[in-house]
Amino acid sequence: MKIISAPDYQSMSRKAANIISAQVILFPNSVLGLATGSTPLGVYQQLIEWYKKDDIDFSKVHSVNLDEYCGLSGEHEQSYRYYMNTNFFNHVNLPIENTNVPNGLAKDIDAECKRYDNVITSLGGIDLQLLGIGHTGHIGFNEPDDDFDKTTHCVKLNQKTIEANARFFENAAEVPQHALTMGIKAIMQAKKLLLVANGSSKAEVLCRSLFGPITPEVPASILQLHNDLTVVADAEALAVI
Ligand code: GLP
User: Fold this and answer.
1) Hey, is 196 helix, strand or coil?
2) What pLDDT is recorded for position 123?
3) What pLDDT does residue 216 have?
4) Is residue 106 within 8 Å of 10, Cβ to Cβ?
5) What pLDDT, on the 0 to 100 scale, is given for residue 224?
6) Catalytic site residue 67?
7) What are the pocket residues of ligand 1 if the criterion is a CB atom closer than 6 Å to any ligand atom?
8) CA 168 to CA 161: how far, in whole Å?
């Protein structure tokens, strides 16, 4: 595991964006695993800036996103499809048909989960997976559980996660109770993992994830077993490490 410390959010975003841009420049056909949440917003802004300066070309990239809320269409402002379109895809030349986000409106959840795993497999797996971390230690929406869920599946969101994400909705009652998330297997099979974290609220969970026991009660702790994990975090998130 490599831990890169950044003084602040902007620097964290720039360092993480550098890793993604190096991947795309060296391997233009890369499959990028992408993440949502507030943490990676600065990474996307930096990548857009470099794209506009002609420094990166995303035209051959494919992307797979980690997760999506159940019951929200891609037009819903809080859906992760909407987030990705507005915060990244609409501003770069990554062809929209090369982008993948689970379908939160799928009627047949099992079929949608299988379809999503097949998409990842047919792309040959993920070259570089960007990850944030939730306050429960979740990655994607893999919440604390008795086992690590391997494949794409539907999760009941943890109350702590619902409260954390309520800031994006009118109130906590508006936050969907369920989400579809890529499983631990696809994440762990990514060739490279890039975890970003900022702020003091992530300090304790980051420390437990990176140095505590490996347990499904802290889903991100499984990342310790990956042989190419880079963590880019700001000073506040690294305060207790
Ligand atoms: C969300 C997403 C995760 C994200 C996490 C942290 O619920 N499903 O992929 O990493 O929570 O979000 P934030 O970066 O806003 O703290």
Assistant:
1) strand
2) 98
3) 97
4) no
5) 98
6) yes
7) 35-39, 66-67, 132-134, 140-141, 161, 165
8) 12
Q: How far apart (Å, rounded) are the C-alpha atoms in residues 181 and 191?
A: 19
Distance, CA of 237 to CA of 138 (rounded, Å): 16
Q: What is the pLDDT of residue 178?
A: 97
Q: Is 95 exposed, middle or buried (0-12, 13-18, 19+ CB in 10 A)?
A: middle
What are the distances in angstroms from CA 131 to CA 45, 151, 159, 193?
A: 16, 17, 21, 7
Structural Rg of the chain based on CA atoms: 16
List average pLDDT for each run of 10 residues in the chain, which is 241 residues long: 98 98 98 98 98 98 98 97 98 98 98 98 98 97 95 95 94 95 97 98 98 98 98 98 92
Q: What are the structural domain ranges in the chain?
A: 2-203+221-233
Å from CA of 99 to ligand 1 middle: 19
CATH fold of 2-203+221-233: Rossmann fold (3.40.50)
HSE on the CB side for 124, CA within 13 Å? 9
Cβ 46 vs Cβ 12: under 8 Å: no
User: How do 31-34 and 62-65 pair as beta strands?
Assistant: parallel
Model pLDDT, residue 73:
97
d(CA 56, CA 142): 31
Catalytic residue among 68, 112, 117, 138: 138
Three-state secondary-structure class, residue 94: coil
Residue 140's Cα: distance from chain center in Å? 5
The whole-angstrom separation of Cα 190 and Cα 214 is: 19
- Which residues fall within 8 angstroms of residue 209, CB to CB, at 6 or more apart? 133, 137, 218, 220, 221, 223, 224
